[in-house]
Amino acid sequence: MQQTCPTCHGSGKEIPDPCVVCHGEGKVKKTKTLQVKIPAGIDDGMRIRSSGNGEPGVNGGPAGDLYVEIRIKPHGIFQRDGEDLHCELTIPFTTAALAERWKCLP
């Protein structure tokens, strides 16, 4: 049976006095705040990729990509219909009549 060395994890280097923070792994977990632009019309379950903001690479390699999965909460006023938003409002008859008249003007 073959397995990776439990001391060096396959790197071929043993660290005799490892760091107390990272325990010799060379990376530390920390929280990072990112700003991600959400494009208009995005739907529930879609993903946005943020290049270079993922987990650090193995043996000093570049960081991977971070994928943000979108979850849309229901809104109190608007309902989605594909890429369209709908809402129902109660308005006076005069407002409806005047607004309709303005649509017909050139």
TrEMBL record:
Domain CR-type, by residue range, is 1-31
What's in the GO CC field? cytoplasm
The residues forming a coiled coil are: none
GO BP term, example: protein refolding
Q: Does the keyword Cytoplasm apply?
A: no
Cross-referenced CDD domains, in alphabetical order? DnaJ_C, DnaJ_zf
Q: Show the InterPro entries listed in the entry.
A: DnaJ_C, HSP40/DnaJ_pept-bd, HSP_DnaJ_Cys-rich_dom, HSP_DnaJ_Cys-rich_dom_sf
Q: Which UniProt keywords apply?
A: Metal-binding, Repeat, Zinc, Zinc-finger
Zinc fingers, CR-type class: 1-31
Q: Which PROSITE patterns match?
A: ZF_CR
Any single GO molecular-function term of the entry would be: heat shock protein binding
Q: Does the keyword Magnesium apply?
A: no
Q: Which PANTHER family match?
A: CHAPERONE PROTEIN DNAJ (PTHR43096:SF48), DNAJ HOMOLOG 1, MITOCHONDRIAL-RELATED (PTHR43096)
- From the Swiss-Prot or TrEMBL record, give the protein name: CR-type domain-containing protein
Q: What is the scientific name of the source organism?
A: Panagrolaimus superbus
